[in-house]
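Tutorial handout. Part one gives the primary structure; part two gives the three-dimensional structure as tokens.
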Amino acid sequence: MSYQTVSRVINESANVKPSTREAVLDAISRLGFRPNRAARALAGGPVQSVTVLTADTRRHGYAAALEGIEEASRAAGFAMGVRVVESGTPSSVRDAVERAIEPAGALIVIAYDPPGIAALDAIPPGVPTAAIVETPSGNDGVGKPWVWIDDGKSARSATEYLLSLGHQTVHYLSIPIWTATRTRAVGWQSALEDAGAPVPELIQGGWGPEFGYEIGERLARDTDVTAMLCGNDDLAMGFIRAMNKAGRAVPDDVSVVGIDDTPLAPYYNPPLTTVRQDFQLLGRMCFAKLLSVLGRETDNEVPSCLGTDLVIRESAGPPKRSSRRAQSARRSAPANDVPGPDPGRHHNEKEAITTTRKENRNKTTTP
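Part two.
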């Protein structure tokens, strides 16, 4: 058969007889033929591949978003590749972007950090692109094929929940902060200010549990810390471990809330109260945005912002210090207000009991 006929079958054209289509597909199966997607794109065919630019593939948010993108792209018949942006230096970013464009497909950028943000900015005009970004400020995201999670709402809802339990304030152990990731800190601070609660100094952390553990060791003896919001669940896991090691029970002595709802969150000890952020769904949303950029129709209009849900488990509760303060106040109340025991009477009774025990020990018993 002519190559035009074979091309029509591969591209699922309707202008092919069923018997011809069956013969071509049979030959494709026997020969193990696979289309060269790069060659198809260069020849002006429809885009059937996507490359994801990301600075990380291991952290929960990145990995779950990649999983969502892969599921959606596979369902749409797209091939998916991943290109890691190793650093934010201009040469590294330029190399990653150029290599990602080489297959002449489309791009998705996970722009959660400086390398990812730099890669998104470096993509030339005309390259079909969609991106996962931190919550844009103002009108930054209007009209752009971006998707994001409302990070500010995540931190705000967690802070409001801890305040509703009776905590005087909420401390915040942050993930690394740059301009784009400040939204969680803003949500935490605004919730405290709106409630008229003291705003403690923000604690800079990292991404992994080791940072939470290190901060937990430093704060374990500070009884003023009764509620801790952690910038992600990994930080919360490390912080809880440090509290337990220091003999401070969670949530009896200190309440801990995370953000993300990682798969391990329900199995921490105690199960972690956290804010669920569906990065997998976010990845599928981003791919749907890309299809719109490519002129493909989607079943429904795709929103840009994804909401979050507070998941209440067992790592947060009312503060014990409030009851301790009440007990302390009762003990220190003046005698004419609240009648109390007579210290002298107790002292005399104790002496009498001691004397009686000594006398009993000196007695001898005859059979």
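Part three, for discussion. The mean pLDDT is 83. DSSP finds 13 helices and twelve strands in the chain.
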